[in-house]
Amino acid sequence: MPVTDLLERNHKLYGDEVALVELNPLMKDTRKTTWKEYDLVQQTSPVAYRREITWSVFDEKANRVANMLLSRGIKKGDRVAILMFNCLEWLPIYFGILKTGAIAVPFNFRFSADEIQYCADLAQVHILFFGSEFIGRIESIADELQKGRLLIYVGDGCPTFAESYRELVADCSSQAPLVRLEEEDDAAIYFSSGTTGFPKAILHNHESLSQAAQMEQKHHLTSVMMSFCASRLCTIPEQNFTGWAAYMQEARQSF
Predict the structure, then answer these.
(1) What does the alpha-carbon distance between residue 121 and residue 114 come to, in Å, rounded to a whole number?
(2) Model pTM?
(3) Which residue, among 47, 52, 62, has the nearest Cα to 22 in the 3D structure?
């Protein structure tokens, strides 16, 4: 089945239950970091906070993203990249991309500006979502990066070379787009770590992603799926989502 069916199923079965939690506990970073390494470290707010959304809101946000992308000309087989730290917006954007039939292309947050440009060109990315932590890297290559592609900023204070995610999705429909998906359809491109050179692309279809989600569910015996990234914690009820969200968080951080 297309992996998007899992989200739509959970919307129907568990609509009012909490689906995603973004938790930032108050933790001091005591690691010694050089100035060269600092830009490649996932930054977190020094203020403790908790954000959460239900399954219905999760699916509706994904639908808004999908309908926005369709209105901007994205079609089946196009490539849409994500360059963001772990946050509550990440998975709705990811699934919104998949709902259009486009291919989601997560970028590793450690990518340098040159690697971002290289991967965007290699994957023939049409649109790039990026977060506030990456403004500097994106701005340094913006003139070349935005040739033939749209840059969408997720956060406050949208830079002039990008369009605002919040403004773009604000008036979009929360209804599922009428795009037929098959499990054989291409779904995502992931990049290797690039330890022996620039990152290399790996293509997955919907069947591959769904099987990975089911394998992850069998692998974890606890009732709650947990994914740790720096000091942020996302929790997903396992019985509701077959471990997909946790799998995606772990998989993209492993590259």
Answers:
(1) 11
(2) 0.80
(3) 52
